[in-house]
Amino acid sequence: MNATKYIILLLLLPLLFGCSNDGINNNNRYLPNYGFSVDINMELPLYTNLQFTGNPVYIDQAGVGITGIFVMNTGGGYVAYEATCPNQEISECSGMFLQGITAICPCDEAEYNLFNGQSTEKEFPLKQYRVEVVNPSVIRVFN
Questions:
Q1: Do 100 and 113 touch, CB atoms closer than 8 A?
Q2: Coiled-coil stretches, from where to where (predicted)?
Q3: Which pTM was predicted?
Q4: Cα end-to-end distance, the chain, whole Å
Q5: Which long-range contacts does 103-108 make (Cβ < 8 Å, 24+ apart)?
Q6: What is the rounded distance in angstroms from the CA atom of residue 61 to the CA atom of residue 133?
Q7: Which fold has domain 22-142?
Q8: What span, in angstroms and rounded, lies between the C-alpha atoms of 101 and 124?
Q9: Tens digit of pLDDT for each residue in 31-75?
Q10: Which residues contact 86 (CB under 8 A, 6 or more apart)?
Q11: Are 117 and 81 within 8 A, CB to CB?
Q12: pLDDT tens column, 1-36
């Protein structure tokens, strides 16, 4: 009987500890977690900036993020963030805009660095999404 318990425990351990969040913490009381997946073909003119470091792109396809996403090549990989202000309830002014490598929230004028998603003055960083390189010209962003 004891051997059966140990076998069951050994079988359950990978399920309990096998999930990974890739170091992404998306616990934000203001922003809901909507599931999505989008493939970005960097050979298309709209996304060619992603082939170069420090050139973010705003993607506002329906069903991608809350108000869209920002994607950027950091030189060491790609990052993707929600384009909705992370430190307040969703409202008419929640859609952020880009200024260089900075995302700016028009509601409170908070600025967020797109290399790391951080703001020096706010509680929550930008909501980060997972990025997977499918092949040299296609990346997938998903939640």
A1: no
A2: none
A3: 0.83
A4: 42
A5: 103/56, 103/70
A6: 20
A7: Rieske Iron-sulfur Protein (2.102.10)
A8: 18
A9: 999 999 999 999 999 999 999 999 999 999 999 999 999 999 999
A10: 28, 30, 31, 105, 112, 122, 124, 125, 126, 127
A11: yes
A12: 566 655 555 555 454 444 445 567 678 999 999 999
